[in-house]
Amino acid sequence: MNAPMTPTIPLLDLDLLKTLVAIAETGSFSAAAGVVHRTPSAVSMQVKKMEDILGRAVFIRDSRSVELTTDGAFLLEHARRMLALNRDAVARFVQPDIEGVVRLGAPDDVAERFLVDMLRRFADSHPSVSVNVAVDTTDRMITQLREGRLDLTLITCEAGFKEDGAEVVYREQLVWAACRGGVAAEQNPLPVSVWDEGCAWRKAALGELDAQGRSWRVAFQSAHISGQRAAVLADLAIAPIPVSSTGGNIIEAPAHYGLPKLPKYALGLLIADDLNPAVSAAADHLRASFTAR
Q1: How many whole angstroms separate alpha carbon 51 and alpha carbon 55?
Q2: Do 91 and 125 contact (CB within 8 A), yes or no?
Q3: pTM attached to this predicted model
Q4: Phi-psi region of 140 (alpha: psi -120 to 50; beta: other; left: phi over 0)
Q5: How far apart are CA 291 and CA 286, in angstroms?
Q6: Are 159 and 200 in contact (CB under 8 A)?
Q7: Residues 77-114: tens digit of each pLDDT
Q8: CA angle in degrees (0–180, nearest 5) for 6-9-10
Q9: CA 39, 40, 43, 45 torsion-angle sign
Q10: CA neighbor of 98 nearest in space, from 291, 288, 283
Q11: Using an 8 Å Cβ cutoff, are 141 and 155 in contact?
């Protein structure tokens, strides 16, 4: 007897995704038609094709406005990433060499976990672009971007922090990290290791403990994820960190400790208004790199 065939997942053409992004950014089918060089009726047909493939509505339309549905907002996030991934790959072969300097901001944990490999690959594909990285807190990097001292920056958003205009490029679960075989999670008040008061992870974690009615104390504070990891490894405290930062003797605290579930956090991308080809290429590379994770 032949094994049942696995249903084939349909593919969404990049042209459809490009139209979705254009509608979301312009706010109307007619304006989007000009962006993608199609007629408004052709744009409507593309949207219908998308919705037929997905079996879900992606826009709420009336005579005066166009808004994304929840499913449409989810698709928009992935559409931007897929388009960036395509641009990043094709640019290596067909785009004239780009020159310039890009000033990039990034949180400490992002610089440690992600940026080294990402920037190495970007240097391979764009050897004439220099990237200068500034590692700082989210609030300070937003200020630097607005003051013209950064061209683009990755920031921590959601999980207690929201910056309007940030394009989400990556989401990950926060967990309570503990030392394997440690006893910090048994103590009362609970010793926690956190960042400074402007940190989204700190706000999310301590807020969840307060909501649970759990007594806690800040036993260790550091502006660097390496400091959080050191405190956990020494069994001085537990810490809210991304699940990808666990490993070895740093584990997710076992469920029997009854710690509150933490939310997912997001990395957002903010770009200065005076976009140039070098900054645009770096932004596309970051989007594509996070998509591939």
Answers
A1: 5
A2: yes
A3: 0.66
A4: alpha
A5: 8
A6: yes
A7: 888 888 888 877 777 676 667 889 999 999 888 888 88
A8: 140
A9: negative
A10: 283
A11: yes
Local confidence band at 158 (pLDDT 50, 70, 90 cut-offs): low
**Token output for 10:** 């349909």
Q: What is the pLDDT of residues 233-251, one digit of tens each?
A: 999 999 999 998 898 999 9
Which amino acid appears at position 139 of this protein? D
The CA distance from 47 to 41, in Å, is 10
223: tokens are: 């502006």
- Domains, the chain, in order of start with CATH, read 14-89 (1.10.10.10), 98-168+272-291 (3.40.190.10), 172-265 (3.40.190.10)
Cα separations (Å) of 117 from 154, 207, 225, 288, 290? 16, 34, 18, 13, 11
On the 0-12 / 13-18 / 19+ scale of CB atoms within 10 A, 90 is exposed
Residue 11 identity (one-letter amino acid): L
Two tokens, residue 97: 């060499």
Give every CB contact of residue 74 below 8 A, 6+ residues apart in sequence. Answer: none
3-state secondary structure the chain: CCCCCCCCCCCCCHHHHHHHHHHHHHCCHHHHHHHHCCCHHHHHHHHHHHHHHHCCCCEEECCCCEEECHHHHHHHHHHHHHHHHHHHHHHHHHCCCCCEEEEEEECHHHHHHHHHHHHHHHHHHCCCEEEEEEECCHHHHHHHHHCCCCCEEEEEEECCECCCCCEEEEEEEEEEEEECCCCHHHCCCEEEEECCCCCHHHHHHHHHHHHHCCCEEEEEECCCHHHHHHHHHCCCCEEEEEHHHCECCEEECCHHHCCCCCCEEEEEEEECCCCCHHHHHHHHHHHHHHHCC
